[in-house]
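Quick one: structure tokens for this chain, please?
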Amino acid sequence: MTRFFTSREAILLGALLVLVLAVEMRFRGFAAPGNLAAIFNDTSILIILALGQTLVILTRCIDLSQASNLALTGMVTALLNAAMPGIPLAALLVLAVAMGLAMGAFNGILVWKLDIPPIVVTLGTLTIYRGIIFLVSGGAWVNSHEMSAAYKAFPRAVILGLPVMSWICVGVVAAFAVAVNRTALGRAFYAVGGNPGAAVYTGIDVGRTRFWAFTIAGGLAGLCGYLWVARYAVAYTDVAGGFELDIVAACVIGGISIAGGLGTVTGAVLGALFLGTIKNALPVAGISPFWQMAISGAAIIVAVAFNRRRAPGRVILREAAA
């Protein structure tokens, strides 16, 4: 029990509760169940993307193209829906995920087979995917009145008091909790990030493991592309511009080590919720967007400094001390 209360996740959960209560004392109703459910729904996309990024970071890589992947898949599904409203929603969802998987796999192949640094690869594909959005849309927007009612309604439909988008997030979190903690591939992500050299001697293919991390992250970004555009009922070239920084920030705040091999699904979820709560609370307090960016940045620096002082969490293969 003592170990739990001193863990990163417990401390982050405590900080999140303190934040919610502090805002509630100043602005009554912020901690109401309905408002908290709305914050969770607002943060659902960030949580899903942060989980995908967690896999990539665990393997000592980083994916800066997730937001561009999201924007491209969202634009393509919106254009298809506007041009051919009769296409079943299920087909558009499958297309979005398939496109995301393909873009993630492209990143993974370049990192695996060509041994190009992940930050270089994903900076390049970030720009490529944004450029393709201009090519397919001609720079034009797809507005709400051009989308079918079914396309826009799905993520907003309410089941047992929560929108479908929240339930999708809950399902992804549950799947990750099992896959990361109970499967050989999940343990391989930790091993590759903890000590790539030793991972090779245990029979783990480092390149292939990183490929799967990028591919899964891409598939989740594709899913979020549809969810984002359908929820906000608009698609344009700069959708989710700069959102990749929020994704990485959520992971860092949640205790995912940039050096790889350390972190948990719970930490990533709490990190995204902490960032999402800050972004919902600051406008309520009347703080300008410029200060919001500064505060978010400060939270990242504090989280990194705090993590360096904490004992390591789950380690599969630790690198030998110099």
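The chain is about 70% helix and 0% strand.
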